[in-house]
Sequence to fold (168 residues):
Amino acid sequence: MKCVLIVAMDKARGIGRNNDLMWHLPNDMKFFKETTVGHAVVMGRKNFESIPEKYRPLPNRENIILTRNKAFLAKNCSVLNSVQELVELKKQESDKTLFIIGGGEIYKLALNENLIDEMLITHVNDDYGADTFFPSFELCDWSVKTLLVQERDDRHKSSYSIVKYVHK
Ligand SMILES: NC(=O)c1ccc[n+]([C@@H]2O[C@H](COP(=O)([O-])OP(=O)(O)OC[C@H]3O[C@@H](n4cnc5c(N)ncnc54)[C@H](OP(=O)(O)O)[C@@H]3O)[C@@H](O)[C@H]2O)c1
Fold:
C-alpha cells in the first residue's frame, strides 16, 4: 500500500498544543478531506481523542488507531497495537492509500520505520507556540514540489503553502 504522510506545521515545526490544533484554515481542512476520502487514515490514540466526538471516526475513510492499550475499542474503527502491525499493513496490496495523519508520535515512528513514500506538508507561515512538533528530516532524501499557495485573507489568519515531498 502506498503510504502518504499528511501534516500541517508552523514555522517552528509545531503541529499542536494541549492536544488540539492551533489554527483554523478552512481551505487546508478541505484539502485534507478531499485528499484522504476513500482511503485509510492511521492516527495515534491521542490524535483520535482530540477529534470532537461528532466528527469521529472521520467519515468515508477507514479509521485506524494506534495504541498500546489492547483493550482499546472505538466504534467503526480498526485498532493496531504496534508499529510492526503497521509495517504489515503497508505490505498489503491495495488500490487505497494509507494516510499517516499524526500526531507527533505517529509521524515520528512512521518516518523512523521508513514507511513513508510521500509527504504532503502544509507549511503555515507563523509560529503558534506549539507543544507538539513534527520531527526534523533530511531534505536531501526528498524531491520537493509546491502544490499551492494560500494567501492570508478573511478566513485564513495565516498564509501557507502545500508542498509535496516524494521519497527519492
Ligand atoms: N497539525 C497537524 O497536521 C496535526 C495532525 C495530527 C495531530 N496533530 C496534533 O498532534 C497532537 C497529538 O500528537 P501526540 O504526539 O501527542 O500523540 P499521537 O501521536 O496522536 O498519539 C500518541 C499515542 O499513540 C500511541 N502510540 C505511540 N507509539 C505507539 C506504538 N509504537 N505502538 C502502539 N501505539 C503507539 C500511544 O497510545 P496509548 O497511549 O493509547 O498507548 C500514544 O500515547 C495534538 O495536539 C493534535 O492536535 C496535529
Observations:
- The CA atoms of residues 9 and 15 lie 5 Å apart.
- The first helix runs from residue 26 to 36.
- Residues 7-8, 15-16, 19-21, 44-47, 50, 66-69, 81-83, 101-106, 109, 132 surround NAP (CB under 6 Å).
